Amino acid sequence: MKNRLVPIRYALIAGTMGLSLMHASAQDYVTLTRGGGFTGNTAVYRISRSGEVARGAGGIEPTLSEFARLRKGKAKKFFRETRTLLNTQSFNYPGNTYTAIALTEAGKEIKWVWGDGSHATPSGAVELYENIQESLNRLTFRKELRK
């Protein structure tokens, strides 16, 4: 399945149908995803190298509708740790519910997906995901990204 989530660098345009996103430029990002199950709903966080964070939820193509800012140094650290982990091997064993961490750089995505109980998840993946998620949980998300 091709990742068709909306990149963070978008201009917000208010309209009568609510907020929509318009592409401004392609960029590199780390993406955390958790979802699946009966409803197929997913929760997604996308972190840019500059520290911009977008959060969204939904079905197959979640809408990124809330934004926050992470310290640039912390974002770079997450990029480095994610790249190190994902370049060691591949891991693609989703279950009915799944968790994923992905890195997109220069238009190329590498991703680990886990959730299938019959395949032991590498501890480094769970540790990295939880470490990043812990930092994201401390952020205050808004409908617009503040400068």
Features:
single chain, 147 residues, alpha+beta, Mago nashi protein, two-stranded antiparallel sheet, 2 helices, globular, disordered N terminus
Structure, explained:
The protein has 147 residues and is an alpha+beta fold. The chain has a single domain, classed as Mago nashi (Mago nashi protein), CATH 3.30.1560. It is 20% helix and 41% strand. The chain has two helices and nine strands; from the N terminus they run E-E-E-E-E-E-H-E-E-E-H. The protein has helices at 72-86, 123-137; strands spanning 10-15, 18-23, 29-36, 42-48, 52-58, 63-69, 91-93, 97-105, 108-114. The strands form two sheets. Strands 6-5-4-3-8-9-7 form a seven-stranded mixed sheet. It has a two-stranded antiparallel ribbon with strand order 1-2. Helix 1 (72-86) packs antiparallel against helix 2. The longest helix is centred in the middle third of the chain and has 15 residues, at 72-86. The chain is globular and about 45 Å long. 23% of the residues are buried. Mean pLDDT is 82; it is low at 1-25.
Gyration radius, in Å? 15 Å
CATH superfamily: Mago nashi
CATH architecture group name: 2-Layer Sandwich
**What is the class in the CATH system?**
Alpha Beta
Percent strand equals: 35-45%
What is the CA-CA span between the terminal residues? Answer: 34 Å
Structural class: alpha+beta
SSE run: EEEEEEHEEEH
Q: Tell me the strand order in the biggest sheet.
A: 6-5-4-3-8-9-7
Arithmetic mean pLDDT:
82
Tell me the major beta sheet.
7 strands, mixed
Helicity, in percent?
10-25%
Number of domains: 1
Low-confidence stretches: 1-25
Q: Which shape, going by the Cα principal axes?
A: globular
